[in-house]
Sequence to fold (503 residues):
Amino acid sequence: MKQYIVLFITLAALIAALLIGCTDSAPTGPVIGFGNSTVTKYVSIGNSLTAGYQSAGLYKSAQLYSYPNLIAQQLTKAGANIGTFEQPYWPDPGIPDPLTGKASRYVIYGWSGTTPLIGPIGEALTAAAPENAGTVLRPYDNLGIPGIPLAGFMDTTGTYQSPPLGRDAILRWTSNAALGKSVFKQVATLKAMGHTPDLVTFWLGANDVLGFAISGGTSPNAPTSPGIFSALYTQALDALRNTLPNAKIVVGTIPNVTSVPFFTTVNPLLAPNIPSAYYLRYQKHGVTGMSLDSTKLTEANAPLITLKGQAYAALLGQATGKFWRDAAASLGYPIAAVLATQGATLDTTKPFGFHPQNPWPDALILDVDEIASATNAVNNFNSTIATVAAAHSAALVDFNGFFNNVKANGLVIAGEKYTADYIAGDIFSLDGIHPSNRGYGIVANEYIKVINASFGMNVPLVDVSSLPKLSAPLYKGGNGKIDPVLPFGAFNSLDLLFRPSIQ
Fold:
């Protein structure tokens, strides 16, 4: 009997211990906070990726999920007293398309059977300036300037700050010159006004290769040279470190263009539309008029059709010069002037894309040499970023390695898989370049991980699953890819985004 009593007591103790272990009590671990560091002011510097661009537009319901705003929210949760993280909010539907004056953002506006119809729908604008422009009387905390290359950080000439696309309104250099006519001067002005940043994220350089790639290597016709990039990046971090000697600075590498869906979506969709007896005839870099270069889009190291080219895929084999008419309209030139640049060998009465005299345009494709140019530029830029960051005691986020891995293997968060596929992967928005809401949450977490590891902090990660998904479940074809219907002239606004200035 005594043995049974002892056994009963032992079992009771064991059950109690197990029950205690199954409670919702938080596990023992690092305490959320900043360790021996402090954060009282956070500023983010960058381009459209930093501004919160989504689906070819800048608008409040997307800006709320910019990665800097998400980082600021997590800093506040960890106990930072940074106040309101100020961003220049454009009320929906956002900023105008420079070509139409209507909202530039892309939406899923309808369906053709099970295929999504994607594009701008001509929404009328509700505001010409950020809604808080009159209430924030200092530089914004989010200094993401759409379209600027690395040179735009120190530039004071207005080359990279001119309207449209919201650049001048973010810096307010035309309406309030006292705030400073460059991104760097905005940072210096914050310090002069008593808002000294002690945490800075800096993500510039992508546009030094992306403008080349987006335009199919036509505008500009080459990435920024490695030597110029190195000089500019060193100048930028010199200026930041000298102005903010005690700040915690975090920089990011540049993803390779071949890891984003703007360049990876169309090949598997278009290849089945090339008859077995035909090749896609296309213009290589710098070629005008007739071209003898050809591809099936399925060979190893094939050229890449850009997402903008998807709008013209249905015209293959037709006697058409639709692309050239659209190009003329986007530039405001007579069609005859544009055709004249192609010379007498271009003949739009021939089958588009299947005949050497009416080839697929250079502006809609990255050929093998252009892919190599972009890849080499990214590798050179990232080598510079790593070297200069180390010399200035700045922490480094390897976004190139991260997005290459996502493209190869996907990413699982809370049991849900994210990929680099167009739309269906739920990392990229409708323009195939800028992240979605959840994509920006993923970017924010990569920053936070490095911030925690580099500065001894324990800032909680963004709950990516709580962020809004892209708005509609989409049909995927037999190859598992989204096959969208895009408007002719699709993403002309993106072409303009990556040009230095628009007069």
